[in-house]
Amino acid sequence: MHYYKFNIGDWHLATSHLSLEEEAIYFKLINHYYDTEKPIPLETQSVIRRLRLGSVSDTVGLVLQEFFSFENDGWHHLRCDEEIAKYHHKAEVNQKVGKLGGRPKKTQSVSENNPQITLTTNQEPLTTNHKPIENLSLSESKIPPCPHQAIIDIYHQTLPELPRVVSWNKTREAHLKQRWRELFTEFECKSTEEGLDWFKNDFFQFIKNSKFLTGRTQSKDRRPFLADLEWVIKPTNFTKIIERKYL
After folding, report:
1. CB neighbour list of residue 104: distance below 8 Å, 6 or more residues apart
2. Alpha carbons 120 and 143: distance in angstroms, whole number
3. Is 109 helix (H, G, I), strand (E, B) or coil?
4. Residues 39-78: tens digit of each pLDDT
5. Structure letter (DSSP) for residue 158
6. What mean pLDDT, rounded, does the chain reach?
7. Of 79, 134, 172, 232, whose CA is between 20 and 30 Å from 55?
8. How far apart are alpha carbons 35 and 48 in whole angstroms?
């Protein structure tokens, strides 16, 4: 990525307590993250050298600890991961649109969920038989409400060795709601019971068997990592877990 949206208000709120040096380091790390589309490596010396931060390496460590999350493949930044994922999703949609003949006319738009569906502003169907096109994926209105407390209870029962959920704020609620939605739109889940069973016997069970996610890996200079519910339902982490990346 060579371009990203920069919200001045959000930046000011997040960095107003930093010194000018700390803010500059954070800004350089964010730009490097977007440019490479990868987390900051655990061995930070190569990045420190590339960004010419050798004289302030201690401060780099402080900034990483405050704004980034330590994972087995590097220092992750939630906002960057989400924006990069959106960028690639949009690129994939544009690629599919291109294969279908390019951009639609000004009176038409393309459905992002299914580029093969073209929408018009005159509300007339574009099928040859003049019947409305139906989206084959499960309608949003048919997806049952996300059972937040039931999933939290299953997490506590299946993974008592991991940190307990004490507070369930709007950010965490939004992440879990989106993961629940994906079960129905991408993995063809059919009911609340089926979804809860997946969390219990597949998702959380894999986490339980993962040495890294449950703090059973040893490192000389770092304490064992323990995942929590908020961490495992973040978009990037969730995808890696269902792809069996953490052993």
Report:
1. 110, 118
2. 26
3. strand
4. 999 888 999 999 999 999 899 999 998 888 888 888 998 8
5. H
6. 81
7. 79
8. 15
Helix locations, 37-147, DSSP H: 45-50, 57-67, 78-99
**Alpha-carbon distance values, 111 to 43, 45, 85, 86, 100 (Å):** 42, 44, 18, 16, 13
* Alpha carbon distances (Å) from 86 to 2, 93, 95, 130, 187: 14, 11, 14, 34, 19
Distance CA 161, CA 82 (A): 28
Q: Are 54 and 62 in contact (CB under 8 A)?
A: no
At residue 96, the pLDDT reads 67
226 DSSP β-pair partners: 214
Q: Are 87 and 106 in contact (CB under 8 A)?
A: no
Kindly report the length of the chain.
Answer: 247
Taking phi first (over 0 means left), then psi (-120 to 50 degrees means alpha), and beta for anything else, what does residue 144 get?
A: beta
Distance in angstroms (rounded) separating the CA atoms of residues 99 and 106: 18
Largest CA distance in the chain: 70
